[in-house]
Amino acid sequence: MANMKKHSFIQVDFHPSVKLTKAEELKLSKWLEMATFVIEDLITKQKIIHPSWLKQTAAFKLSVLLCGEAKIKKLNADYRHKDKVTDVLSFPTFETLRKPKTTNDYTGSLILLGDLAICHQRVIKQAKEFDISYLDEFIHLFIHGAIHLMGYDHEISSKEEKLMQDWEHKALSLFSKIKKKGP
Predict the structure, then answer these.
(1) The listed CATH number (2.40.50.140, 3.40.390.30, 3.20.20.100, 3.40.50.970) that belongs to domain 10-99+106-181
(2) What residue ranges do the domains of the chain occupy?
(3) Is the pLDDT of residue 5 over 60?
(4) Crossing angle for the helix pair 134-149 and 120-130, nearest 10 degrees?
(5) Cα dihedral sign, 92-94-95-96
(6) How far apart are CA 36 and CA 112, in angstroms?
(7) Is the pLDDT confidence value at 4 over 60?
(8) Strands lying side by side in the sheet with 10-16
(9) Which of 6, 30, 125, 180 suits 157 as a labelling partner, its CA being 20 to 30 A distant?
């Protein structure tokens, strides 16, 4: 994938609000581009969402905000009523994409999955804790958040937690293969 084409099935709007060098921003964007192939595989081949969501859908879109601790703490307090810093927050457009699409659901060709907020300082801290690179931890949180956007929630029950962990494992294994080929 040395000459990987711009991915259009999964579109990601990346918005860093923390100070990054141009090289860091470019690298994160390239890794997000590689991760879109993982999300596409989960949707189209692995059936992480109900197939009815694919009818008349040309693309899915999500936005990613890379922010600092103060911003993510405020978002967590405002929307989840938890006054603490967290690593990733997901704001899905739909309650779930696991159930069939109904006539009340959006039927356009572009489906907005929702928004993610990822905490830059938490990525740094957790990458050190897990002895992995910043980029690997960032992609892990991106995939974790994207799975939330599709209607999965590990906080509901141990069964849901196991299901979400299984999806994450599949996604991260696939990303590892894509990463070896490079952007």
Answers:
(1) 3.40.390.30
(2) 10-99+106-181
(3) no
(4) 120
(5) negative
(6) 14
(7) no
(8) 10-16, 59-67, 110-119, 88-92
(9) 125
